[in-house]
Amino acid sequence: MTILAYRRDIDGLRAVAVLAVVLFHFGVPGVTGGFVGVDVFFVISGFLITSIIWRERQAGRFSFVGFWARRARRILPALFVMMAATLAVGWFLLAPKDYEELGRSAHYQVTFTSNLLFARQHGYFDASSDIKPLLHTWSLAVEEQFYIFFPLLLALLSSRLKHWRLALFAVLLVSFGMSVWAVSHQPQKAFYLLHLRAWELLAGAMLAVMPKVEWRASPPLAQAVSLASLALILTAIFGFDRHTPFPGAAALLPVLGVVGLIWANGQQATWVGQLLSSRLMVGLGLISYSWYLWHWPVFVYANYAAVDGLSAAELGGLMLLSLVLGYLSWRFVEAPFREKRLLAGRKAILAGAAAGILCLGLTGLALREADGVPWRLSEQALRYAQAKKWSPELTACLADKNTADKRSFCHFGPQGLSVSALVWGDSHATALIPALEDAANRHDISLVQASFAGCVPLDGLENITPCAHFNQRVEKALAEQSFSDVVLAARWSLYLYGQMSGDKEHALKDLGTGKYVRAVAEQRFEQGLRERIQGLRAAGHRVWLVKEVPLQEIIVPYRLSRLAMMHRPVDGEGLPVAEHEKRQAFITRLFDELAAADSGVTVLDPAPLLCGADGLCRVELDGRALYTDDNHLSDVGARHVQAFLEPLFRSLQSRGLTAN
């Protein structure tokens, strides 16, 4: 193997990279762009690895198998130890859904494809990414994918083309151009995928294969370039944030900064080079890989266990803990394997790598197949966690974009010739089925339930074509059958204001611009509801408007099960009543106006049965979750609020509208 002249400054540059990433992830104020530390690693890796490949090729000693064996020795032992420990801790800490996802991540990562998995899920900066203990392995996946293909590409170009460096530079430019385009059009893919990140590794690679020249930069020029390059990196670390379109053109700052520093410090001794070569920086650089591996699982698991976040002092202590773990990993795992004190032979390391891949991969697959091994949980935690599952009876009554023209409506109560009432809405109408079915049987009333996921039961406001077709089917049923009453139930605020998180995907848009404007959404909704009620009343139907249940800011079964696993109380969980009333203010006013203007329109509200004198809209009752997620009632929740439907059933019963 060709030995490169050791450069302390590059180890110091690794320290800059890992410090940026760790400080960013632990939320240290000011380090808002620390995620660019990964880009610094990419360029360093491209330079060092390509330098080795190229010198070995020039000496006629390069071997693909030998190269990949060295990569396995360098990367896999510390990675596999961290993954095994992460899976072990997850057994005791993670809720089933999260443990299943951890298994999925491990299964992908052992084949270095976790970046492909994460690219299909939430964005890197989304809050949901903070509960993925192996999220940081995406960068390792990108690097290893690169080093599977790059040696082959380098060998092909350098052996077939006279101007192969220009061809390699052209590949770099194409990758960069695609990255710039993808940042605007496919930002998640731009962040995670190899072909959109390859230009950063190629930037370091190009520096490594540049032809040797006699000319050397003067000390003043080297000083100027090194200072300017450090300024580029620091500008990105302290100037970028999670809202910066990245990587794309913005990644030029750290990439060019690293290229400039490596070049300048290779030309002359510089002030920046001396700083990077200091004992502290070199020491941090030596353990940077292991520290990078351990810092993220430590942060994720600590945050997970804390449930409500961590103090600055706790974050500082955890950062120190991750540094200690990183040092121990370097001292007892990384260095012994790298120095061939363990599994010294090529066959031994490759066999060990295969065994680790097989063991961790099968473990990850088993966790997926076992749905996160829910029997690990205590009886109470498991009871909460299981509330997220809808019963087959409910899902059978909910149409969606794949079933709208096929699925029949559901019928509850006595099966007679006379049908008294139709319940029409979206999945919130479906969630009421346990209460509707119980009441229908108890009062001897016949009901038909028609619901479509994410579909507002109002004309002209449907977001997708199958939804409009479904509403037409309901209108046809109303015309053909003898329904006396129609119950409209939906997550009304979704169509007015979007998700609680701020996502406006399902909210009504301005027809002219296609953009969301609150006043326009409210105007369109009011008009659509008035027209729907006018049509129903003209056809002789009584109308019942069901207000939505309080929307929560947490995924209820998930939150409650986590609290139970941590042996934490669940008291105090729930949305403040004031916030519920604020979000529902327009809907409340409109519903009340419609009911006041027509005695044939009545408003039903489940919220008083969920919101108490303590000022909270509760999510739990007697050890049971009242919601399946953050907005749908569970079976227990639906039955808990059943009394709010009594006016409907008493009205039907008093008018003698029973099934024959």
TrEMBL record:
Domain Acyltransferase, first and last residues per copy: 9-330
Keywords in alphabetical order: Acyltransferase, Membrane, Transferase, Transmembrane, Transmembrane helix
SUPFAM superfamilies cross-referenced by the UniProt entry: SGNH hydrolase (SSF52266)
Transmembrane segments: 12-28, 34-54, 75-94, 138-157, 164-184, 190-209, 221-240, 246-264, 276-294, 306-328, 348-367
MF (Gene Ontology): acyltransferase activity
Pfam families in UniProt: Acyl_transf_3, SGNH
Residue stretches making up the SGNH domain: 397-646
Alphabetical list of InterPro entries matching this protein: Acyl_transf_3_dom, Acyltransferase_3, SGNH
Protein name per Swiss-Prot or TrEMBL: Acyltransferase
Organism: Pseudomonas veronii
